Amino acid sequence: MRTVDRSPAPIPARLWGVLAASVLVAAASATVTAGVAFLIPALHDDRGMRLTTAGVLVAMPVLGTAVSLIAWGALVDRIGERIVLAAGAGAAALAVAGAAAARSPVATGAWFLLAGAASAAAHSASGRVVVGWFPVHRRGLAMGIRQMAQPLGAAIGAISMPLLARAHGVSAALLVPLALNALAALVAWVCITDPPRPARQAPGSGALVTSPYRGARYLPRIHSASVLLVAPQALMQTYLLVWLVVGHRWDPASAGVVVTVAQIAGAAGRIAVGALSDRTGSRMRPLRLVAVAGIAGSLGLAGAEAWGAPGALAVTLAVAVTVISTADNGLAFTAVAEYAGPFWSGRALGIQNTSQFLMVAASTPLLAAVIEHAGYAATFALSGVLAAVALPMVPRADVRRASVPEPAGAGTDARRGPSG
Fold first, then answer.
1. What integer pLDDT is reported at residue 102 of this predicted model?
2. What is the CA angle 362-367-165, rounded to 5?
3. How far apart (Å, rounded) are the C-alpha atoms in residues 142 and 74?
């Protein structure tokens, strides 16, 4: 009897190249939305801004991203990923240049808002590239790699922008996101190829064309849980450096190393949980584990801060909470895109991102106010409470709305694979 090899077909090398280009574009976007938070110590010390005022200013890119994500997602559904990624990164570079040249907080905030709106293109489009090209047995890993772009971009900002701001001013620090987004625009145009999509009239496509929100609570539950789980991420991403530099008078270089290590570890964590979801065949079970770990880590960090910080234990816990707080994104994004299907994933990911970025934009100045009035221990505890509220919202089982077609080029027949 002949044996049939049922092992999954290998992924063509050029698809990993497309994924790498997507990671670069998304990381460049993160230097805008996350990187400007590392300018808070310079704004606080050099320009005399209150922590709450600086928090409002650096929340502008996040707000700009939040208000434009759904529009970018709809555009991706209509014209494809490549043009959107290249145009968004190029426009972000121009807006950051405007912020670097601005001479007033109001003008800087306006340019930050525009930069965030432009960089939002990366969030919906780059996720769709992954889901469109990678088969289900490698999709969790691929999305984990794509999702590591956010902590990677934040790490680049943490290691470079505070030092440049301290030595040469805020405008010099903004050259980092400017250069990266200009490079990302070029790479997206050259290297990204839109994944194939089935025709709307193809057999089996009828269910995928209809709205995934019609008569179902699966996506709203994932959106709601993700909104609450992003609050600890916003806290650690924005205020870990501030906690060390402003709260405990660490040297910015040493604090930047801690933040960079935390962000790199967070990137590795996203890949690990993505691979775990492929192995277990579930996105929701690992997502629930992340929520439980977030509760324990945040409350532990709150206790360490209350009893005296930032000792080795507190800093270790802070790094762990940073890793945990970023680990859920890839799982939720993959689940949303898989359920929404090829005709709705741009808008569904836009809604997923919008809800999260609105939470980040709102919570950044609110967390600053809590820190100023109640201290860091209470703020860390608050993030643990939010993770606890999110836990019952995570669906207990994965749901497939309809069969999502396997990407052409993801298996042995790569004739329709990307040409770049």
1. 84
2. 90
3. 23
Instruction: Enter the tokens of residue 328.
Output: 């859920």
Contacts of 20 (CB under 8 A, 6+ apart): 191
Identity (one letter) of the amino acid at 183?
L
In this structure, the dihedral spanned by the alpha carbons of residues 302, 304, 309 and 312, taken in order and rounded to 10 degrees, is -130
| pLDDT over threshold 90, residue 177 | yes
Nearest Cα neighbor of 76 from 340, 376, 308 is 340
Per mean pLDDT, which range of 1-5, 14-18, 380-384 is the poorest?
Answer: 1-5
In angstroms, the CA 208 to CA 77 distance is 13
Helix/strand/coil for 203: coil
C-alpha closest to that of 112 among 24, 31, 10, 27: 31
| The two three-digit tokens of residue 418, written as one number | 């990307």
Residue whose entry in the numeric block shows the structure tokens 């106010």: 369
Omega prior to 310 cis, within 30 of 0: yes
Question: What tens digit of pLDDT does each residue of 102-161 get?
Answer: 888 888 889 999 999 999 888 777 777 777 788 777 778 887 888 788 878 888 888 889
Distance CA 72, CA 94 (A): 18
d(CA 258, CA 264): 10
* CB-neighbour burial class of residue 190 (10 A; exposed 0-12, middle 13-18, buried 19+): exposed
In the numeric block, the tokens 């298996």 are attached to 411
